[in-house]
Structures are given as structure tokens and as C-alpha cells.
Specification:
The chain is mainly α and 321 residues long. The protein folds into two domains: 23-157, Peroxidase, domain 1, CATH 1.10.520; 179-298, Peroxidase, domain 2, CATH 1.10.420. It is built from 13 helices and two strands; from the N terminus they run H-H-H-H-H-H-H-E-H-H-E-H-H-H-H. The chain has helices spanning 2-20, 36-50, 54-67, 96-112, 119-133, 167-175, 181-188, 202-206, 217-226, 250-256, 263-270, 275-283, 285-299; strands at 195-197, 236-238. Strands 1-2 form a two-stranded antiparallel sheet. Bound molecules: protoporphyrin IX containing FE and 2-acetamido-2-deoxy-beta-D-glucopyranose (NAG) (2 copies). Residues 177-178, 302-303 line the site of one 2-acetamido-2-deoxy-beta-D-glucopyranose. One 2-acetamido-2-deoxy-beta-D-glucopyranose binds at residues 82, 86-87, 91-92, 94, 96. Disulfide bonds join 33-113, 66-71, 119-316, 198-227. Heme b binds at residue 191. It is found in: Secreted.
Length: 321
Amino acid sequence: MDAWRGLFLGLMAFMIMKGGEGQLVENFYSSNCPNVEAIVAQAVSTKFSQTFTTIPATLRLFFHDCFVEGCDASVMIASPNSDAEKDSEDNLSLAGDGFDTVIKAKQAVESSCPGIVSCADILAIAARDVVVLAGGPSFNVELGRRDGLISQASRVAGNLPEPDSHLNELNTIFARNNLSQIDMIALSGAHTLGFSHCDRFADRLYSSSTVDPTLDPDYAEQLKAACPRNVDPSIAIDMDPVTPRTFDNVYYQNLVAGKGLFTADQVLFTDSESQPTVVDFANNPGAFNGAFITAMRKLGRVGIKTGNVGEIRRDCTAFNS
Ligand code: HEM
Ligand SMILES: *[C@@H]1O[C@H](CO)[C@@H](O)[C@H](O)[C@H]1NC(C)=O
Ligand SMILES: *[C@@H]1O[C@H](CO)[C@@H](O)[C@H](O)[C@H]1NC(C)=O
């Protein structure tokens, strides 16, 4: 009888382990790098004290990493042939300060616990930390990701939303990453921070004889003044014209007022299918914060490698071998 009981318990334990495989946990490094979050937080705040761009650059880097090849730090790889993920057309707008934040944090972590913590986890922690530094909500970050072994520019196209995307296209691309429409709307709230280059929205101002009618006329004039036709392509403007350095729900209030910078922002209000969520988040910062936390945790699970898949990179910008 005992033998049967042992076999049964063994089988149960095996099934539980199988079920647990591939899942992230909050305390993943509690025994082998217990201070990892404090070390990363320190590196992020040092970098932030040098430049505000640390905040939007790191948050966007996490998003781009997760949507291409999963949250596996594939975006961090530097290729001598300029054909890695970061070399794709969309890379120009990934500010170098996000990469630098992860590199600095990794160096600090390696000096305490060498070879233990993945670059993918460091980026996930740093993305949470910058939200908090900008005044946004804090949340626990699940850990246990491994770093990927593939990083190719050619895998980027079609996996990231474009500024002229409409609701169906946004929903399709987010759904592929297990994110719902509400998650998508909440994550778009990241545009409460950071900058955009003029060419990403110039078509709304200049592509026809009248400006995009969903743009508030005063805001359109403001945008035209900041971004005249054929403006220097390096010119960038705040994406949230009201509170550009604070993580808050003003982004949604801007959408209600016709002050969404991209079509992909404004359409969240103009499309009747997503409008109620935008109005809710505009009126209720608690609802937005809660939805943002849920969505960030879900974003952090996209395409993860765990167990023996991938590696723990020594240098975030290069594969180990
Ligand atoms: C929903 C579809 C989305 C579209 C179409 C989109 C598109 C863009 C574009 C075109 C820029 C401007 C880049 C530039 O010209 O420098 C930008 C900036 C930014 N995006 Fe998004 N994005 C989307 C979702 C997200 C998500 C989910 C996040 C993060 C959770 C995010 C975070 C950011 C941040 C923080 C910036 C500012 C970057 C900086 O200042 O360096 N975006 N986005
Ligand atoms: C982006 O790609 C271009 C062309 O491949 C390259 O010259 C540039 O250095 C890259 N920028 C970043 C930030 O990696
Ligand atoms: C979406 O979730 C399913 C079920 O948990 C999982 O098998 C799949 O890998 C996930 N997709 C992505 C892109 O993470």
C-alpha cells in the first residue's frame, strides 16, 4: 500500500513541477541574489539623476523587447553586421538611454551575483522602477526569464504596432501577445511619458488639404508650430502635452479632448468600441493604475524562456558564445 502511496505522491509532485515549469515567480532570486531588486533600483535611479529620458526610454525598450521574440532581452543584442533586432527601422526611436540603463544595472548586479540574473529580468525590473520614478503605481515583478539566443532585425516588421494603426490592427497585434483590448488601452497610457519625432504623426497634419478632423484644432496648430513641414527629422516633442514628465491618467483626458498624438492614440477614443474604457481611465486614476499593473505583468510573460531554454547572458549586448 505504501509503495502505491509513494508512487501516487511522486506522480503528483512530478505533475506539479511540470505545471510550474515555464512560469515566472516573484521571489525567483531569493536564495541566490536576494538584493537584485534593490541593486537594479539603485542603478536606475543613478541613471535617472543624469537624464529624464531614462524613464520613457526604458519603459519603451521593455515593450519592444517583449513584442519581438518575447521578453528575452533580444532587443539588447548589438550586431557587428547591424542586423540585430535593434537595427531594424523602428530602432532609431529607441533612445540609447534605455539600453544604457540595463547595461549599467546588469554591471551592478553582476558584481554582487555573477551569472545569476538574466538581462530580460533586469529590463522587467527596470521598467517597473521607471514607472515608479515618474510617479506611477508600484507593483511586484515576476522573475525567472532567461535571455534569448535570437535577435534579428528581420523579425521586427509586423510585430510592433504603428502610429497610424486603427483599433482592429492594435487589437490583433496585442491579442497575438495574449493581451486584451483593455490591456492594450492601459499599456498605451505609457504615452503619458516621453517624446515622439515629428515624422511619426506628420501625416495627420500635412497629408491632405485639411488636418485630421479628430485632432483638436488648437492642438493641431501647436503641433504644426513645433513640427513644420520638412522639419529636421531629429526634432521630437512631448507625447503628453499637459504633464509630460508624470506617469498619470492625463493621457486619457487628452484623448477625450482630441489631443492624442498618434492616430493609434486618438482612435482609442474615437472608436466607440474602446471609448468607454478611455472615459473610465480619464475619470478614474485608480482604474487606470490597476489595469496598467495587470497589463504590465501580462506583458512581462510574453514569449518567455524558462528552465534550460536560452541562457543567462554575461553581457546584455552579446550572446555568451
Ligand atoms: C499601442 C500601440 C503603440 C504605438 C503605435 C506606439 C508607437 C510609438 C511611437 C511611434 C513612438 C515615438 C517614437 C519616436 O518617434 O521617438 C512611441 C514612443 C513611446 N512609446 Fe509607444 N507605441 C505603442 C504602445 C506603447 C506601449 C505598450 C508602451 C509601453 C508600455 C509604449 C511606450 C512608449 C514610450 C515610453 C515612448 C516614448 C519613448 C521616448 O521618449 O524615448 N508605447 N510609441
Ligand atoms: C539603428 O540602425 C541604423 C541603421 O542600421 C544604425 O546606423 C543606428 O546606429 C541604429 N541605432 C541604434 C540606436 O541602434
Ligand atoms: C499565450 O498564452 C498561451 C497559454 O498560456 C501560451 O502557450 C503562449 O505561449 C502565450 N503566447 C505568448 C506570445 O506569450
